């Protein structure tokens, strides 16, 4: 029996200043992974964006320095340098060293703000090796430096500047003892900063990567704001009409901006934001938008006799088929449900969005009857397809064995009934499926072989999807249903593993499967149930010993270790079918030795994920070519 530790008054710890942040980083930035690392940049940038929202900042520069430190420069008012009467130290020092301190708590500094809790700058400071801030105000440049949250010297003047010029420059180096990595990814920052620029009309954001000899620079500046955001999201699709519908106004102290445009696709890509923060779970502002467009289009369709029967109403889903929309509101006291700002709760936001969109959309439809007719006709087609899909869905829905609708015949199910222990391999082709069925552990591993390339759901309505045998087999095997029928508690396997050949065709099939899961069962990805198997690229034999290599680098390492000579026998696997059951088990299916890649979805970048799927799987060739050219440098293994 272990000795009982003393637990008295002195065992209650008081963490002074920023010690709490360094001790419990996850409470403040979510994680210390790559995501948390990039979050530090967003915190400093969001402070500059708040200056832009207040009308005082027009340009933000973000630089990744050669040592992976970050510099953020803005031309806002500059953080105040005077003594804060309550703290007895300069206001800038309060901002960077005191939690829950800032100009966003009703003191009149900001009417609206994304950074509401006053922890941004101080948390970045606490989690950095060092941080330096320079402020240009009143013709003087002030500077202060901190190391791991501690002030190194009093605020001091270090030079002069143009009396008309103001702004703040923050440079920080993340603490390598806290973060899993301190190497910044240009692409990750690019996506977030581009979205920020779309949401802040006329704000210019420059991103520079100074780590290579040739500077990589991107400038984001959108005078059209969220109208250009909709154009960007629709670039891989064919718009139903040329003009982006735009609604703007203020009601009950809520500033509302909405931009929308239908395309020839079938998915609803509506994204909502509050003070430039994405709300993945929507909330009252999104509810107001949906209510307004459903009511307005139904009223117009009835008035124009497009809907003949009195009870023949269009649903919200019908009207939002192929819709791309941005709902962005600015509000002084946002109330979010939960710590993560996932869902807005302010009741006044619903009324404001509903009223502004209803009035301005009604006016637009009256002024543009041809556009209105196109949208209504598309919605009526969606209504008919929805009814066909309902009938197909009834036939596909998972029922008990007594109902006679059992699991798909090609599925080799596992014997364990606890989903936590079970995994299903979605395998390309009957040949690989046969090897996988022989190789598997029958207790916990199920195999579902698919024939050829599944339907591209990006280009198909729901009724067509239910009519596709391969997709229907997956839906039935998983057990969750899709769309409004989706119920994750009925999931039969806690690992869904996509296992395709390690070549271009295999990558395409995996992308088709991921497109289906993203569009119809996104919660499976969000909750971490979807994986990609990693089959080996090479088999190396020498003196009756066998090695497997999963990359060219690993092949070279193995050859260096065993010696490069004529006794080496190297086989390049072109497909899973080339492996016998034993090889497939020990390289790709054995939980003790395999490599699985978990498919992750970050709701912060939801609009970018949507745009990527539309670009890759849509009909337009030019945006796809541009995407491939821009991202070719990130490809690691490519068969030619």
Structure description:
The protein is of the alpha+beta class and 640 residues long. It is 36% helix and 21% strand. The chain folds into 3 domains: 19-221, 2-Layer Sandwich (Heat Shock Protein 90); 226-393, 2-Layer Sandwich (Ribosomal Protein S5, domain 2), CATH 3.30.230.10; 405-535 and 597-634, Rossmann fold. Strands 1, 2, 5, 6, 7, 8, 9, 10 and 11 form a 9-stranded mixed beta sheet that branches. Helix 8 (284-303) runs parallel beside helix 10 and helix 12 packs across helix 18. The protein is globular. The model is unreliable at 7-15, 398-405 and 635-640 (pLDDT under 50).
Q: Which structural class fits the helix and strand makeup?
A: alpha+beta
Give the terminus-to-terminus CA distance: 64 Å
Label the overall shape: globular
Counted up, domains total: 3
CATH architecture of the largest domain: 2-Layer Sandwich
The CATH topology of the largest domain turns out to be Heat Shock Protein 90
Tally the helices: what do you get?
Answer: 20
Main pleated sheet = 9 strands, mixed
* Helix fraction bin: 25-40%
CATH H level of the largest domain: which superfamily? Histidine kinase-like ATPase, C-terminal domain
> Could you report the average pLDDT, rounded to the nearest whole number?
86
- Total count of strands: 26
Which blocks of ≥5 consecutive residues have pLDDT under 50? 7-15, 398-405, 635-640
Strand content: 15-25%
Offer a few descriptive terms.
20 helices, globular, disordered C terminus, nine-stranded mixed β-sheet, 640 residues
């Amino acid at each position: 029996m272990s000795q009982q530790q003393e637990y008295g008054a002195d065992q209650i710890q008081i963490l002074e200043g920023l010690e709490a942040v360094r001790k419990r980083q996850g409470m403040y930035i979510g994680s210390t992974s790559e995501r948390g690392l990039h979050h530090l940049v967003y915190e400093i940038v969001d402070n500059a964006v708040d200056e832009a929202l207040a009308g005082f900042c027009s340009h933000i520069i973000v630089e990744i320095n050669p040592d992976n430190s970050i510099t953020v420069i803005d031309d806002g008012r500059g953080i105040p340098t005077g003594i804060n009467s309550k703290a007895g130290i300069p206001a800038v020092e309060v901002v960077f060293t005191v939690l829950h301190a800032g100009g966003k708590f009703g003191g009149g500094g900001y009417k609206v703000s994304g950074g509401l809790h006053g922890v941004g700058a101080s948390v970045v400071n606490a989690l950095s090796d060092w941080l330096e801030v320079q402020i240009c105000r009143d013709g003087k440049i002030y500077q202060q430096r901190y190391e791991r949250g501690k002030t190194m010297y009093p605020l001091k003047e270090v030079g002069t500047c143009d009396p008309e010029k103001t702004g703040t420059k923050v440079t920080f180096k993340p603490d390598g003892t806290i973060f899993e990595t301190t190497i910044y990814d240009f692409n990750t920052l690019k996506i977030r900063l581009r979205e920020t620029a779309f949401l802040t009309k006329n704000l210019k954001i420059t991103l520079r990567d100074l780590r290579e000899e040739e500077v990589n620079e991107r400038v984001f500046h959108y005078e059209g704001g969220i109208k250009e955001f909709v154009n960007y999201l629709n670039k891989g699709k064919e718009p139903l009409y040329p003009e982006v519908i735009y609604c703007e106004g203020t009601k009950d102290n809520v500033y509302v901006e909405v931009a929308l445009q239908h395309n020839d696709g079938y998915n609803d890509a509506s994204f909502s934001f509050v003070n430039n923060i994405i709300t993945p779970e929507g909330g009252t502002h999104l509810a107001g938008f949906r209510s307004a467009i459903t009511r307005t289009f139904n009223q117009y369709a009835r008035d124009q006799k497009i809907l003949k029967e009195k009870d023949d109403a269009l649903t919200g889903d019908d009207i939002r088929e192929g819709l791309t929309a941005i709902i962005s509101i600015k509000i002084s006291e946002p109330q979010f449900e939960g710590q993560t700002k996932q869902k807005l709760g302010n009741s006044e936001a619903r009324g404001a969005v509903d009223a502004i969109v209803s009035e301005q959309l009604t006016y637009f439809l009256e002024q543009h009857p041809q556009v209105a007719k196109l949208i209504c006709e598309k919605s009526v087609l969606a209504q008919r397809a929805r009814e066909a899909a309902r009938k197909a869905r009834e036939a596909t829905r998972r029922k008990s064995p007594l109902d006679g609708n059992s699991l798909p015949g090609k599925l080799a199910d596992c014997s364990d009934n606890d989903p936590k222990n079970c995994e299903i391999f979605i395998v390309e082709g009957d040949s690989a499926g046969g090897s996988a069925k022989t190789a598997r552990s029958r207790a916990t591993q199920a195999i579902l072989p698919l024939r050829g390339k599944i339907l591209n759901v990006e280009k198909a309505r729901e009724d067509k999807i239910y009519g596709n045998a391969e997709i229907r087999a997956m839906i039935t095997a998983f057990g969750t249903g899709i769309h409004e029928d989706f119920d994750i508690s009925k999931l039969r396997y806690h690992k869904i593993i996509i296992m395709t050949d390690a070549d271009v065709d295999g990558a395409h099939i995996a992308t088709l499967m991921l497109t289906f899961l993203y569009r119809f069962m996104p919660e499976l990805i969000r909750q971490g149930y979807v994986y990609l198997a990693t089959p080996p690229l090479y088999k190396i034999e020498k003196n009756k010993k066998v090695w497997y290599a999963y990359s060219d680098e690993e092949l070279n390492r193995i050859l260096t270790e065993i010696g490069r000579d004529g006794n080496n026998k190297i086989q390049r696997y072109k497909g899973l079918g080339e492996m016998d059951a034993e090889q497939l088990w020990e390289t790709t299916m054995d939980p003790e030795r395999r490599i699985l890649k978990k498919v992750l979805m970050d709701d912060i970048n939801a609009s970018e994920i949507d745009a990527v799927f539309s670009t890759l799987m849509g009909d337009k060739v030019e945006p796809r070519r541009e995407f491939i050219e821009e991202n070719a440098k990130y490809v690691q293994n490519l068969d030619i």
